[in-house]
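Appendix B: a complete holo record

For completeness, this appendix reproduces one full record from the ligand-bound portion of the collection. The bound molecule is zinc ion. The inputs are the chain sequence and the ligand SMILES; the output is the full three-dimensional arrangement of the complex, encoded as structure tokens. No fields have been trimmed.
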Amino acid sequence: MIIQSLNIELPVSENFRVQKNRFVPQSVSINNDEVELKKLKRISIVSGTHGDELEGQYVCYLLTNWLENNQDKINGIIDIYPSLNSLGIDSITRSIPFYNVDLNRIFPGNKNDFLPSQIADGIIEEISGSDYAVDIHSSNIFLRELPQVRMSAEFKDKLLPLAKKLGIDFVWIHDAITVLEATFAHTMNSRGTKTLVVEMGVGMRITPEYCFSLADGLKNMMADIGILNIETKKLKEPVISENGEVFYLNAGASGLFVPTTSHYEILKKGEKIGNIVSPLSGKIEEEVFSPSDGVLFTLREYPIVYEGSLLARIFGKNSSEINNK
Ligand SMILES: [Zn+2]
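The structure of the chain with zinc ion bound, as generated:
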């Protein structure tokens, strides 16, 4: 059932709103059984915090489509919010349009502040009380990400077992210093909702195979926590990083970055990743090599680079260990 879950008046008689599609067991009425609903486990699947990230839109479609056709398998409350930053999604804008504020940097927000802060506050109020949440992001237009879950070391013990049920490629655990506290996930985790952040694909595009895989993983996770009544599957185990093992490769020259390797390559130290070339001089300005054995989990998608632009991230680990996972 589609429900308007947040509605804030805008200055010129328009409204900012967030909608969700709520699924409950067939035995429970969405409107009448408040007491019955409170007894059920609840998961909130959210996306569109950044309006230029569309992979999550397709994942929401795939899940909703499946749930519509499998209502007899639903054992809890599943709330799907495709576009938290609905103005951003509608205009393919990363931040909240006009205010130019990144919604994922102002949580938990405040009712008495400006519009972006009111939106953040309304979202937290709406989703609080969920047992679980999954926040789906898709990088930006510059970088392509292998499907991965990111979490802070602080919540690792609670979140890692959950992340392993998603059949995702990679889990990146950050230490406390690099964690942004003003994010949706940090606020929700601090308030007791186990919240996973998924990053995958590239901004403004969809990568169907990643979306199919995550939709399947989410069903598997929901089965594991008792929200869906389907068989759990044994999905692939993620490669798990602890902080300190991730290498950042930055451009040493300006030009056109042309990769020579494909994404999610298991690399050997010294293996070539790509060239930075000059269209004007016809010369190779820089050859880019892997500084370590490891998994290439971030690769530049947008070809124009300046000195210092991020080209790739590599989780450095002995490649035989990764192959044997
Ligand atoms: Zn994002």
